[in-house]
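The protein record reproduced below.
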Amino acid sequence: MSAPTTGRKPVAIPLFRRSKRRDLVEVPGRADVLALISVLLGYPDEEFDSLRADLAQAVAALPQSAAATLVQKFWGQFSHVEPSEARRHYVETFDLRRNCSLFLTYYLHGDTRQRGMSLLMFKQRYRAYGFTPPENELPDYLPMVLEFAATTGPGVGEGLLRMHRSGLEVIRTALRKRKTAYSLLFDAVDVLLGPITQKQLDEARQLISAGPPQDSIGLESPLAGYGQADANVPFGPPAYTCSERREPQ
């Protein structure tokens, strides 16, 4: 697609969420889909709202594919939602439910000590490929992982997504159950990653039933499975969930 004729220097989609420049440039179809999903899964704050026109153009210009169709279907629903309602829905969907957390290592390691090592692995992988994420986000934050996948390609970036396929399936299942349009974005990621294995499906079902691993030291009882979790209790590190910028408007 051609960049809008605004006179500003174009910026690649994977970067425009962290940039004040708003023009978009053509990128290969696969990376384009991943980059857009990365942005669309971010909190719809005022900066996001300022990009709506550019996002609409980018979504409409996606090369034809099953994944692109799902992203376009999402945008067709989301674009009609008032900004204040979009923020409220985002918080209720991703910040208040453990089974919809966007921090991938939680599903693989829960709150065990191994999670710290997994987070370090993400940082090392980013550093090795010259990817510099924001300091105020944990490295396993899904929009960030998707951005990394968009910039490094199927082998490197998507490898991190495949490592956490069972967790992605937990989120996708929960979003479908809630009948939220965000499930369409996870369906698109699912298409890009290819068929899920039976082992990954079994792991996802186990996570849904019993929840992620937990260190037993200092705990009176293990956390309940996702289906038994209190949907009104904020989940995730306090610095990253339900902060002032994420309060429903």
